[in-house]
Amino acid sequence: KAGVTQTPRYLIKTRGQQVTLSCSPISGHRSVSWYQQTPGQGLQFLFEYFSETQRNKGNFPGRFSGRQFSNSRSEMNVSTLELGDSALYLCASSLGLAGSRGTQYFGPGTRLTVL
Amino acid sequence: GENVEQHPSTLSVQEGDSAVIKCTYSDSASNYFPWYKQELGKGPQLIIDIRSNVGEKKDQRIAVTLNKTAKHFSLHITETQPEDSAVYFCAASKNAGNMLTFGGGTRLMVKP
Hints:
Chain A is mostly beta strands. Chain A has strands at residues 5-7, 10-13, 19-24, 31-38, 42-50, 53-57, 64-68, 74-78, 87-94, 105-106, 110-114. By secondary structure, chain B is mainly beta.
């Protein structure tokens, strides 16, 4: 079974631009979560989606948003990019929300560089 | 909210030795504790997880122990090999499907 796929793998943007990142979960997985990884702050939770509904949101400004489609694929968007948004953005998927169905599997990430 | 602390931040061992990484958490409601291994240029890979109704879990050379009273859990890797070299993260959540709070990571270097 194919793992979590994320596109694009690398992205370079300039300050003030916006960006959209895409995540395709493992086949059959209905929950998708996004995390930001930086050397300074480590791995931080952004948001979580299940059945097209946002269930949880981390402590990030409103410039960060996301959505999930009926086929469980998810996108996240960052508007008005800042230098500090440079990071590895990771997507994780799980079958469901609890017990062994909630185990999260990560994709390879999208490396975003803001110049 | 939950806070997870991880020690040490770097760990260097000789091939064949054991490695131990420790984490503490703050929220007593947390009951799911996974460990991930991240190699350069890759996303975190789940290597083992434990739920609060279990005190210890083993999978070949890897074991995890959990002390709910003290709110700490540890990863034990025996007979380390060079391919074990990576960054290891512990995490905690109230439920396997909920948001994960990660520790700061441990860079493990296994010297041949």
